[in-house]
Amino acid sequence: MCGWVAAGGARSGAGTRNPPDPLGFIHRPIDPTVRRVITWNHGADMSWTEQVDLAGKVALVTGGSEGIGLAVASHLAAAGADVVLTSRSADRARAAASNVGGRVVGMACDVRDYQACEALMSAVGERFGRLDVLINNAGLGIFKPIQEMSVDEWTLQVETNLNGTFFTTKAALPLLRKSGASEGGDAWVINIGSLASRNSFGSGSGYNASKFGLLGMTEAMMIDLRYEGIRTSIIMPGSVNTGFNDHAGDRDWAIQPDDVGRSVLQLIAFPTHTLVSRVEMRPSRPARRS
What's the order of all strands across the beta sheet hosting 35-41? Predict the structure, then answer.
């Protein structure tokens, strides 16, 4: 069962531009396929910000009801995109879409079910006629030694973290190809991985296996899809300040969900002739182990 839930009606942040700055800032558009302005401060700290205008674009975020997914959906919406966020629960999708506001809709979908993913993409096509950005974020982890992990727990992680990404991407390809092939077109598949995609740890056999597989699949997808106008990348954050893995979500030293949202926009902002195929993120000053 899939059902749309709309939140709000006004677009927020679409088409905004910074005026010329007399204090040494440079404002210049780079790539007409993704309208944006680079603001670069020539002061001592060389700080910079980048604004991405996604007006007229459609983005889909799986696992978008909380944590990283909710932050990514919020950043995409603030950049002007029409955003679809999904959760296995229609109620949670509805609540998340309402919290984000703007041109956001929520839809229930279990990414472990390929038919549900096909229904999701069919609904996106009927409502919007296009899909430009797919964020594969839905995932989970069960952390225990392999001696204690059940077959069902192993299967749940692989089916969600690995199969789910394959299912949603496979189902989305007709829409993504359409966007990628259009004049000046550019489509994206961005998978949310983990530093656990490269670094094994005790009690992480199921999670490591699914995330190592996700990295390999992403790199192969990048090669398969690059000539169809679809850029593919993976963002691999370390410790993120969410409730994942039973953490309290109050770790100030950790990566913040909004940091991942910004990374998504930074990827999309690159000119179409450039592809950043992997982004590793880690806390700059992690908590010291006692």
Answer: 25-28, 35-41, 48-53
Q: Where are the beta strands (DSSP E) in the chain?
A: 5-7, 25-28, 35-41, 48-53, 58-61, 82-87, 104-108, 133-136, 187-192, 230-237, 278-281
**Which of these ranges, 75-89, 179-193, 268-282, has the smallest mean pLDDT?**
179-193
Mean pLDDT of all residues in 263-276? 95
- Cα–Cα dist 60/82, whole Å: 9
DSSP, collapsed to helix, strand or coil, labels residue 48 as strand
Of 204, 207, 213, 225, the catalytic one is: 207
Q: Is 78 in a helix, a strand, or coil?
A: helix
Dump pLDDT digits (tens) for 271-285: 999 999 999 999 998
| Nearest by Cα to 87 from 136, 138, 123 | 138
Q: Kind of pairing, strands 230-237 and 278-281?
A: parallel
Cβ-proximal residues to 148 (8 Å cutoff; 6+ apart), any chain? none
227 is a catalytic site residue: no
CA 71 to chain centre: 9
- Which domains can be identified in the chain, with CATH numbers? 20-53 (no CATH), 55-281 (3.40.50.720)
> What number of H helices and E strands is found in the chain?
7, 11
Contact assessment for residue 59 and residue 261, using Cβ atoms and an 8 Å cutoff: no
Residue 164: strand, helix, or coil: helix
Region of 91 (left: φ > 0; alpha: ψ -120 to 50; beta: rest) is: alpha
Residue 159 tokens, joined: 């089916």
Cα–Cα distance measured from residue 168 to residue 31, given in angstroms and rounded to the nearest whole number: 28
> For residue 220, which amino acid is it?
A
Q: Cβ distance 235 to 264 under 8 Å?
A: yes
